[in-house]
Amino acid sequence: MKQIILVMALWLGTLNTSAQLMYKISGNELSKPSYVVGIHNLAPAAMVQLINGVSDALNGSDQIYGELNMDAASADASQIVKDAATLTEGKTIQQLLNAEELKRFNSFLMKTQGQDLRNRMLAEKIEKRSPAALTKDMKIWLYLANHRGTFDPTSQIDAYFVQLAKKNNMPMFGLETIEEYANAVYQTIPETRQKEQMMCVVDHQDFYQKQMDNILNGYMLQNMNTIEQALNEKLGGTCDATDEEATVCQQRIAQWAQKMPEIMKGAPTLFIIGIEKLPGEKGLLQLLKNAGYTVEGMK
How far is CA 187 from CA 96, 153, 216, 238, 294, in A? Predict the structure, then answer.
């Protein structure tokens, strides 16, 4: 915990007055503004205190929308995600990987988990997860293995907003259903391509670690330019997203942008969105501008 506080102090000391993660959405016949805030799944809850305009956004909003309903932790929803993140036809990750790939994957597990698939408890926990699900986990494991003591899983920024909404009796909704989320995240890419992307993390750990560091550093400094640059970093070759894969992600964001006008007309809303969905010509902020809204960083 002391290390977390020290890191926060260092970021606070370098924060500039124009930094922003919170945006006000106005104009285009809205009677009251709505707001969009970017979140990062590795950012501590204490980061909220540094985000410009949080109090104004909360006081000015009647409801919260996440990508999903962040308070909808039902058993049915969990099962839908679990099923989508499970390998098909009872396969295991050991069966999906060849001998050399399995050796490299086990080496990654030893580095980040301190044990590999020869450990029965770990194998039972992860062997039936799809490569797409494992890739999400592996990036977090890689980050944590290189930043021990700077992450507190019990105090994260997304959970903080849920708790704050409950405290203020603000209703919470989602821009997509649990089924839409599970399909988009885990099932749009074939398992063979998922495996290829998973092995990219295994084989290019330095690149992904540096990219995650750059994104999180940009986030803590509230510097969208740094975040966008890090998101655009490429390895070159098959590890980079194909045009088709990029289009799937862009279509998901575009669908949210199409839903937001009706939501904002109904009530002033605070939208809580993963920071990687906001910047760029096809990011959510630009799509809202294209739709005729004024998008201003909160000061």
Answer: 16, 27, 27, 19, 35
